[in-house]
Known about the structure:
Layout: E1 2-11, E2 19-29, E3 34-38, H1 45-53, E4 60-65, E5 68-69, H2 75-78, E6 82-85, H3 99-107, H4 121-132, H5 151-163, E7 169-173, H6 181-198, E8 202-205, H7 209-214, E9 218-223, E10 226-232, H8 233-237, H9 241-252, H10 259-262
Parallel strand pairs: 3-8, 3-9, 6-7, 7-8
Antiparallel strand pairs: 1-2, 1-4, 4-5, 9-10
Amino acid sequence: MLDLQNVSKTFNPGTINEKRALHNLSLHLEPGDFVTVIGGNGAGKSTMLNAIAGVWPIDEGRILLDEHDVTALPEHKRAWLIGRVFQDPMMGTAPNMQLVENLALARRRGQKRGLSWGVTKEETAEYYEQLKTLGLGLEERMTVKVGLLSGGQRQALTLLMASLRQPKLLLLDEHTAALDPATAAKVLELSDAIVAENKLTTLMITHNMGDAIRHGNRLIMMDKGHVILDVSGEEKAHLTRQDLMDKFAELSGTQVESDEMLLS
């Protein structure tokens, strides 16, 4: 479903601010894989997601999505293949538009626009039922502007919007980092449910080792722009935070005293 082949990306090449963000990165995801991604700041996690989404071009390598070579495609031409939820709850939605209007926009991602009514009665009924599954009462607030929702409500809505068109790949970019622990747990619970129900191939970046271990069927650790650890199945199920820190020290040659130090 996703194939990164020897991808490299350097920012500000040839200057004093040169930064190699991705270095010969290769990664393959099978359909239905739910992969959690951890690593310290500067490891290349967000750069990898941005490269997949087409936010900026890569220097070398190839990116294939559902067997489509999207390496040279700009971001908007990949939109029909990808759903994404950002760290900032203010991103991913139109705050001055109603919930139902945001959902209608998400439904039409990648499609040509016409002059028909923006939201049909049939769609409104469908969105009501979909919002109801979130368990947040948003189905009774469909005409409320999204900007009036809490951070957790917006992330839940964005998750629903990102999955409406059954994307080939769902990117969750630290989508709970800005939320309080209770709200983050609820959003992660919804993420698991939406991914499982729609059988979505998913990449989720997190700064929480516990969340990386508990969620998904596979875990990768990045350092200096490439993958240094890739575990799945029973091996992942029995991982602990200490295991991950020991693995990081062994594979990177850098000793850390806590998971907070590793992921900061």
